[in-house]
Design a protein that fits this description.
single chain, about 180 residues, mainly alpha
Protein backbone atom coordinates (compact mmCIF):
# COMPACT_ATOMS: atom_id res chain seq x y z
CA UNK A 1 0.00 0.00 0.00
CA UNK A 2 1.46 3.38 -0.90
CA UNK A 3 1.62 6.47 1.29
CA UNK A 4 -1.46 8.20 -0.14
CA UNK A 5 -3.65 5.16 0.35
CA UNK A 6 -2.45 4.81 3.93
CA UNK A 7 -3.10 8.49 4.71
CA UNK A 8 -6.58 8.29 3.14
CA UNK A 9 -7.42 5.17 5.15
CA UNK A 10 -6.17 6.78 8.38
CA UNK A 11 -8.37 9.84 7.74
CA UNK A 12 -11.41 7.62 7.16
CA UNK A 13 -10.76 5.75 10.40
CA UNK A 14 -10.31 9.01 12.30
CA UNK A 15 -13.48 10.43 10.78
CA UNK A 16 -15.47 7.30 11.69
CA UNK A 17 -14.12 6.95 15.22
CA UNK A 18 -15.14 10.35 16.68
CA UNK A 19 -18.56 10.08 15.08
CA UNK A 20 -19.11 6.65 16.64
CA UNK A 21 -17.80 7.80 20.01
CA UNK A 22 -19.93 10.95 19.95
CA UNK A 23 -22.98 8.86 19.01
CA UNK A 24 -22.18 6.37 21.76
CA UNK A 25 -21.74 9.15 24.30
CA UNK A 26 -24.90 10.86 23.14
CA UNK A 27 -26.99 7.65 23.14
CA UNK A 28 -27.30 7.34 26.95
CA UNK A 29 -28.06 11.00 27.15
CA UNK A 30 -30.82 10.63 24.58
CA UNK A 31 -32.26 7.72 26.50
CA UNK A 32 -32.35 9.86 29.55
CA UNK A 33 -33.91 12.70 27.66
CA UNK A 34 -36.66 10.59 26.19
CA UNK A 35 -38.21 10.13 29.53
CA UNK A 36 -37.68 13.69 30.70
CA UNK A 37 -36.26 16.81 29.18
CA UNK A 38 -32.71 17.36 30.36
CA UNK A 39 -31.28 20.76 29.84
CA UNK A 40 -29.02 20.73 32.76
CA UNK A 41 -25.73 22.48 32.32
CA UNK A 42 -23.89 19.54 33.83
CA UNK A 43 -25.35 17.23 31.16
CA UNK A 44 -24.29 19.62 28.43
CA UNK A 45 -20.81 19.97 29.97
CA UNK A 46 -20.56 16.20 30.30
CA UNK A 47 -21.47 15.80 26.62
CA UNK A 48 -18.96 18.51 25.68
CA UNK A 49 -16.23 16.85 27.74
CA UNK A 50 -16.97 13.49 26.14
CA UNK A 51 -16.97 15.08 22.70
CA UNK A 52 -13.69 16.87 23.52
CA UNK A 53 -12.17 13.61 24.80
CA UNK A 54 -13.29 11.88 21.60
CA UNK A 55 -11.76 14.76 19.62
CA UNK A 56 -8.46 14.41 21.53
CA UNK A 57 -8.47 10.63 20.96
CA UNK A 58 -9.11 11.25 17.28
CA UNK A 59 -6.19 13.71 17.18
CA UNK A 60 -3.95 11.11 18.83
CA UNK A 61 -5.11 8.51 16.28
CA UNK A 62 -4.37 10.94 13.43
CA UNK A 63 -0.92 11.70 14.87
CA UNK A 64 -0.26 7.97 15.26
CA UNK A 65 -1.41 7.33 11.70
CA UNK A 66 0.84 10.12 10.42
CA UNK A 67 3.79 8.77 12.41
CA UNK A 68 3.13 5.29 11.08
CA UNK A 69 2.84 6.69 7.58
CA UNK A 70 6.12 8.55 8.08
CA UNK A 71 7.83 5.36 9.31
CA UNK A 72 6.52 3.41 6.34
CA UNK A 73 7.59 6.19 3.97
CA UNK A 74 11.06 6.12 5.53
CA UNK A 75 11.16 2.33 5.11
CA UNK A 76 10.04 2.67 1.49
CA UNK A 77 12.69 5.33 0.90
CA UNK A 78 15.37 3.15 2.49
CA UNK A 79 14.27 0.17 0.36
CA UNK A 80 14.34 2.32 -2.79
CA UNK A 81 17.76 3.67 -1.79
CA UNK A 82 19.12 0.14 -1.30
CA UNK A 83 17.69 -0.99 -4.65
CA UNK A 84 19.14 2.08 -6.37
CA UNK A 85 22.53 1.44 -4.75
CA UNK A 86 22.45 -2.18 -5.89
CA UNK A 87 21.45 -1.14 -9.41
CA UNK A 88 24.27 1.45 -9.43
CA UNK A 89 26.80 -1.10 -8.20
CA UNK A 90 25.66 -3.64 -10.79
CA UNK A 91 25.94 -1.02 -13.55
CA UNK A 92 29.45 -0.17 -12.37
CA UNK A 93 30.39 -3.88 -12.30
CA UNK A 94 29.05 -4.34 -15.83
CA UNK A 95 30.88 -1.22 -17.05
CA UNK A 96 34.13 -2.46 -15.49
CA UNK A 97 33.62 -5.88 -17.05
CA UNK A 98 32.94 -4.31 -20.46
CA UNK A 99 36.02 -2.10 -20.10
CA UNK A 100 38.19 -5.08 -19.13
CA UNK A 101 36.86 -7.13 -22.05
CA UNK A 102 37.49 -4.23 -24.44
CA UNK A 103 41.02 -3.80 -23.06
CA UNK A 104 41.69 -7.53 -23.43
CA UNK A 105 40.36 -7.37 -27.00
CA UNK A 106 42.64 -4.41 -27.73
CA UNK A 107 45.65 -6.25 -26.33
CA UNK A 108 44.84 -9.32 -28.42
CA UNK A 109 44.28 -7.21 -31.55
CA UNK A 110 47.62 -5.48 -30.91
CA UNK A 111 49.40 -8.80 -30.44
CA UNK A 112 47.82 -10.16 -33.62
CA UNK A 113 48.80 -7.04 -35.55
CA UNK A 114 52.37 -7.25 -34.22
CA UNK A 115 52.57 -10.93 -35.16
CA UNK A 116 51.29 -10.15 -38.66
CA UNK A 117 53.72 -7.25 -39.00
CA UNK A 118 56.60 -9.45 -37.81
CA UNK A 119 55.59 -12.16 -40.27
CA UNK A 120 55.36 -9.59 -43.08
CA UNK A 121 58.79 -8.24 -42.07
CA UNK A 122 60.31 -11.72 -42.11
CA UNK A 123 58.74 -12.42 -45.47
CA UNK A 124 60.00 -9.11 -46.88
CA UNK A 125 63.46 -9.81 -45.46
CA UNK A 126 63.48 -13.27 -47.03
CA UNK A 127 62.39 -11.80 -50.36
CA UNK A 128 65.08 -9.12 -50.12
CA UNK A 129 67.73 -11.76 -49.32
CA UNK A 130 66.50 -13.91 -52.19
CA UNK A 131 66.53 -10.93 -54.57
CA UNK A 132 70.01 -9.99 -53.32
CA UNK A 133 71.26 -13.52 -53.87
CA UNK A 134 69.62 -13.73 -57.30
CA UNK A 135 70.98 -10.33 -58.32
CA UNK A 136 74.41 -11.30 -57.00
CA UNK A 137 74.30 -14.50 -58.97
CA UNK A 138 73.14 -12.63 -62.07
CA UNK A 139 75.86 -10.05 -61.58
CA UNK A 140 78.50 -12.77 -61.13
CA UNK A 141 77.21 -14.58 -64.22
CA UNK A 142 77.24 -11.34 -66.18
CA UNK A 143 80.77 -10.65 -64.92
CA UNK A 144 81.89 -14.15 -65.82
CA UNK A 145 80.34 -13.85 -69.27
CA UNK A 146 81.96 -10.47 -69.82
CA UNK A 147 85.34 -11.87 -68.74
CA UNK A 148 84.87 -14.93 -70.97
CA UNK A 149 84.01 -12.72 -73.93
CA UNK A 150 86.91 -10.40 -73.15
CA UNK A 151 89.30 -13.35 -72.96
CA UNK A 152 87.88 -14.81 -76.16
CA UNK A 153 88.15 -11.46 -77.87
CA UNK A 154 91.70 -11.12 -76.51
CA UNK A 155 92.66 -14.56 -77.71
CA UNK A 156 91.08 -13.92 -81.12
CA UNK A 157 92.83 -10.56 -81.36
CA UNK A 158 96.10 -12.15 -80.23
CA UNK A 159 95.66 -14.98 -82.68
CA UNK A 160 94.97 -12.54 -85.52
CA UNK A 161 97.87 -10.36 -84.44
CA UNK A 162 100.10 -13.45 -84.30
CA UNK A 163 98.95 -14.51 -87.76
CA UNK A 164 99.56 -11.01 -89.07
CA UNK A 165 102.95 -10.92 -87.46
CA UNK A 166 103.81 -14.32 -88.85
CA UNK A 167 102.56 -13.23 -92.28
CA UNK A 168 104.47 -9.97 -92.04
CA UNK A 169 107.64 -11.73 -90.92
CA UNK A 170 107.23 -14.27 -93.66
CA UNK A 171 106.69 -11.58 -96.21
CA UNK A 172 109.68 -9.63 -94.86
CA UNK A 173 111.85 -12.79 -95.11
CA UNK A 174 110.49 -13.40 -98.50
CA UNK A 175 111.46 -9.93 -99.62
CA UNK A 176 114.83 -10.23 -97.89
CA UNK A 177 115.56 -13.58 -99.43
CA UNK A 178 114.66 -12.29 -102.86
CA UNK A 179 116.78 -9.28 -102.50
CA UNK A 180 119.75 -11.14 -101.14
CA UNK A 181 119.43 -13.97 -103.44
CA UNK A 182 119.38 -16.52 -101.14
Amino acid sequence: MNQREQASRAREQVAEKPAKEVEAAAAPAEEETEGQPSTSLSDILLKAEKAYAAYRDAQKDVATAYRQSEVEAEKAFHTAEVKARHARDESIRQALKARDEAAAGSVKARQDALAQAEQAYKSALEQAEKAFTENGTKAQNAYDETIRQALKSYEESLSQASKKRDATIEQAWGVYTKSTGG
